[in-house]
Design brief:
Number of helices: 3
Distance between the termini: 18 Å
Shape: globular
Amino acid sequence: MEHDGIKFSLILATVGRSEELTRFLRHLDQQTYRNFELIIVDQNSNGILDSLIRQYQEDFHFCACDPDVGYPARGTWVCNIFPVRSWLFPTTIAGTLQTRSRR
């Protein structure tokens, strides 16, 4: 793809939404454009996301960070993601890139 140098930093803040996050990660794993990182701002105090994060740690780069500490985004484009509303098609990120680059 001609835009391989453009990296997306997807920032997702979550608390108490493991089911929605599971669905979102499944959709994210199907993306045709793979140059992205997922920054999960985990606001859960009980570690309910730990096993889910381990399940996907080999599939794409992401970081779970404490909301009080933060994490530096490395992407060219930074996007806030809302997993409750985010149904991703396999070409969502690639399509966003193509649409934005035409402007």
